[in-house]
Amino acid sequence: MQDGSELSCVKQETLLRTEMTDAPVARTVLQQCLQARLQVKPAEQLSEAQYVQIDRGMVIYVCFFKGATDDILPKMVSTLLNLRLCESDSGKMVSVLELPGSLLIVPQATLGGKAKGKAMQYHNNIGKEDGLRLYSAFISLCEKEMTAAAASAGTGAEVTVKHGTYGNRQVLKLDTNGPYTHLMEF
Asked: pLDDT per residue over 17-30, tens digit each?
């Protein structure tokens, strides 16, 4: 038989496990856009800055937290690409797959920050190697879904998936038809 203190410890352990499993393993911010341009490599002494650009579509900022695994990626991609957040020519809200539109994926470690005093801390973010691997797999799944949707639509519209460079500071220029920004956690 357990005494009160042992039972209390078991309850606290269970609560901690529950809180840990309910904690998000990824955070994304979505923004529809008319055009977006992202610097992926800064200018150097002998070379100009390099950019990627998309036209109408959606920008996805993504951050992975400790505990994130490949298992979450299919759900993330399906959810994000099927959300009706883009305005069609008729004014109806459609998904980026239905538009068809392009996609710009931006790694954004700052989405994992928590304020402590007057500074931000990022202790919950995934390690760089695992983060890069998940980010690369996320991009691949998005490319696969976007290509399949464009092929099945048969509209001949050019659909592109561009992405930023993991681990680097990047400069973004964004044109939108309204601030229509959404936060999603997985």
From this structure: 444 568 999 999 99
